[in-house]
Design goal:
Length: 236
């Protein structure tokens, strides 16, 4: 039973490789039949577990409720997506994000997986303040960039307007935190005046080197703290 449950869990997770947009696309009918099969197996496993568990104990266990809700959401999303597809309406499968719930909440799942997930869940509220500070810094730098470059009619190498829309500036600077678009994002300003490089240097120092290091430290320390306080979760 455990092996079969694991097989259908990983089959359900691997469907993302074959569903549109896919790495190795398969017909919608094939992927939908496989998904319905997996969901029926999960529902059957849950029913079997309910038969051998006290009624009050079964319904008090949050894991069982999560699995049941995930199955119903997946079936509803699949049905809606199929109907919209018949009428030629493009949509997305939003229920894919609930698929890891099956890996985490089934009784067959390893305790370490659930413990790690609970540690992540307990860590998230405690890193909110650091994240909000980071977002405040990003928004302030974006506003400064709009004031510095917005009225200078600069253009990118592709001839597009440069730093004239606030939301686009926020996105470009957010990507710059990862240095993925460096130095392309700063070249139009640098070509206009080399002094503008100081703005981007200050932005990278504050957000990439300070905030990202601080964010990583807070996440690591809180995750480690929550992992230690859980039963069997001692770590060195």
């Amino acid at each position: 039973m455990r092996t079969a449950t694991y097989f259908f869990i990983f089959l359900n997770l691997s469907l993302a490789l074959f569903e549109e947009p896919a790495v190795y696309p398969l017909p919608f009918l094939a992927t939908s039949v496989l998904e319905v099969l997996c969901l029926l197996v999960f529902l059957g496993r849950l029913t079997h577990f309910a038969k051998v568990t006290l009624h009050n104990v079964f319904w008090k266990d949050t894991k069982n409720i999560c699995i049941m809700v995930a199955v119903l959401l997946s079936l509803a999303d699949l049905a809606i997506y199929g109907v919209l597809r018949l009428y030629g309406v493009r949509s997305i499968r939003w229920s894919r994000i609930v698929r890891p719930i099956f890996l985490i909440n089934f009784a067959e799942s390893r305790q370490q997986i659930r413990r790690a997930f609970r540690s992540i869940r307990n860590t998230l509220p405690e890193i909110t303040y650091v994240f909000l500070l980071f977002m405040f810094s990003l928004l302030m730098f974006s506003l400064m960039a709009l004031k510095l470059f917005g009225e200078r009619n600069l253009q990118t190498a592709e001839g597009l307007p440069y730093f004239r829309n606030y939301l686009e500036i926020v996105f470009d600077l957010y990507v710059l935190v990862t240095t993925a678009n460096s130095p392309d994002v700063m070249m139009p300003a640098f070509d206009f005046s080399s002094w503008y490089a100081l703005f981007f240097i200050a932005f990278v120092i504050v957000n990439t080197y300070i905030f990202m290091s601080l964010f990583l430290a807070v996440v690591y320390n809180n995750y480690k703290k929550h992992l230690k306080v859980m039963p069997g979760g001692a770590c060195d």
